[in-house]
């Protein structure tokens, strides 16, 4: 409650949380495509590669204007993406090695330029390195506008090229055969990824931006198999983590914003992979237990069935000690056997008489006879 | 020893120590794991620091190494659920651990000198100031010894388990069948990567660790097909990058670590462009030659096929043949000119004809192709 009171009374927090939430939406949307195309780590590379672009832009114009620096970062990011692509295409070097090389070389180049800039007598240069490491708490209203405008353009582009993005993400060969150039569409996707990362640099910083790109998409993927729903969910998750992360960081003393957003989004990922219906780990566990139970019941019933057909009277009852399934999954303890028999009785497949003597019913015989795997002879 | 020389020595030791496990990382498609590990070891350092409250404690190295291995383990757990691809798993695990580290630092370490920037960027220029003094005797910079030990550990690890590493890297199924425990080798390698990253990042910063672990191995990968040679070449390239980078940094007075990363990019680019077998120049020339060769043969087969047809004047006519092959006119003219120069075809009454020699060549290349289809 205290946090909410702060939220509604503090203008700075409203600005910062608005910026972070907007950023979460944008990176969730475009990050979904990065995740699906197995380019999750491209974001990490681009965010590091932005540094030399920012430094060069500053060197050229000598003023610390956010928009000019962002354009420099954008160009450097695109160049880095291009370099990764060329290395990947024209040599046997794997995609991930290309990512590692480009990341470190570009960032190293940025460091060289930064140290060079620090030698120039220009009062403007102070804080240039802070630019890339991100400080959400210093977000201004005009920065939020930048996020809003660039984000709106990115989302508009995604909607405009929706069909193309979808087909290239899932089946680039098929899209080529339809005359939709997967190369051009890949370029558009890379451009959008670069743009969304660049606007995020200031808010959450270079390292945490890659989490903002990957995590919402991964979380959303667990809940659905439909691209439109996935993208929508990812943007919601992104917005929630931006908003909640900022509020948490503002209500706890000396809690940095970027890391706090990353923690929130990681919790969302954890919840999603645990509890999402169908794909989630809990559901998988339940399904496995269900099928183990089914297999156990089938085995016991089969054992009774075999006793029945080897006996003159098929409905002759057998003491429980005889009904030993060959291999009951999870052990052969009598107690477990009893509970399995009771479950079968509930289904009407077996009956009990004289305390602990069991026999198979007509329904049970039919069940085995109609079973695709168990029936034989 | 002068500080300049010491810095270069440290850098060369770090470069070689990094490129040894780096070779296996690159071959196992785990290059980006270095990115993750170099960031998450911060968490280990922070946590141990708050327990022992001493920045020089050897437990820092142990804690950081453990967190490095933990990172790999967490990524694998996530990946094994089949719900998250490996690259996404890396992209989730490492920012999370890194964020936890930053939160701990900013909450509790306001007064302590544990700067995240210095962890990531490193400052090689300061390395010589940290001396190892035994019995009052100054025997050199501490980093020389710490990295030297790590280099020896890595070299021994790879030396002793070379066969196991090799098989586990190229055919982990075979390694398991032979009883080599690929998981154990995998985690051995990851521990080695983690220790190296921990030892190196204090001296050179994590970004340079990535450059040293990935750059020289992939440069060597373009030059050789032999694992042993790859290890030696990549160590040599790493050392060269370190020295080149230092000289440049000293010349223009800029970041040493950054210059070394740049030098890594430079040597890689040179090899990428000019390598004898796999350089881009050779690759493009080979692709061009193959295109021309394929086109020439297709043209010759077409001519041979329609030789003596009643439509020969149309199918093989100088001005009409490009329609039948569906090629661009310019491209066809180039191929025709080349074949004429080689005296394989001649032009007679506006029709392209094979020479005696040309016919032999065409038939023999046709037979070559057909026989290559037979199993």
Task: Give a description of the structure.
The complex is a heterodimer of chains A (377) and B (375). By secondary structure, chain A is an all-alpha fold. Chain A has two domains: 2-277, ABC transporter involved in vitamin B12 uptake, BtuC, CATH 1.10.3470; 283-376, Arc Repressor Mutant, subunit A (Orthogonal Bundle). Chain A contains 16 helices and three strands. Chain A has helices spanning 2-9, 11-36, 42-61, 66-90, 95-119, 128-133, 141-160, 162-170, 172-177, 182-204, 206-223, 227-251, 257-275, 281-309, 334-347, 362-370; strands spanning 318-319, 350-353, 357-360. Chain A has a three-stranded antiparallel sheet with strand order 1-3-2. The termini of chain A are far apart. The model of chain A has no long low-confidence stretch (mean pLDDT 81). The N and C termini of chain B lie far apart (67 Å). Chain B has two domains: 3-278, Orthogonal Bundle (ABC transporter involved in vitamin B12 uptake, BtuC); 282-372, Orthogonal Bundle (Arc Repressor Mutant, subunit A), CATH 1.10.10. The radius of gyration of chain B is 30 Å and the shape is elongated. In chain B, helix 2 crosses helix 3 (58-80) and helix 13 crosses helix 17. With 375 residues, chain B is mainly alpha-helical. Chains A and B meet through helix 3, helix 5, helix 11 and helix 13 of A and helix 2, helix 4, helix 10, helix 12 and helix 13 of B.
Short description:
In chain A, 75% of the residues lie in helices and 3% in strands. With 377 residues, chain A is mostly helical.
Task: Please report the distance between the alpha carbons of the first and last residues of chain A.
Answer: 71 Å
Give the number of helices of chain A.
16
- Strands in their spatial order, largest beta sheet of chain A: 1-3-2
| Helix and strand element order of chain A | HHHHHHHHHHHHHHEHEEH
CATH homologous superfamily identity of the largest domain in chain B? ABC transporter involved in vitamin B12 uptake, BtuC
User: Into how many domains do the coordinates of chain A divide?
Assistant: 2
- CATH architecture label name of the largest domain in chain A: Orthogonal Bundle
The H/E string of chain B reads HHHHHEEHHHHHHHHHHHEEH
What is CATH's topology name of the largest domain in chain A? ABC transporter involved in vitamin B12 uptake, BtuC
Given as residue ranges, the uncertain stretches of chain A (5+ residues, pLDDT < 50) are: none
- CATH fold group of the largest domain in chain B: ABC transporter involved in vitamin B12 uptake, BtuC
Estimate the helix proportion of chain B, in percent: over 70%
Structural class of chain A: mainly alpha
Q: What shape does the CA trace of chain B take?
A: elongated
Please state roughly what percent of the residues of chain B sit in beta strands, choosing from under 5%, 5-15%, 15-25%, 25-35%, 35-45% or over 45%.
under 5%
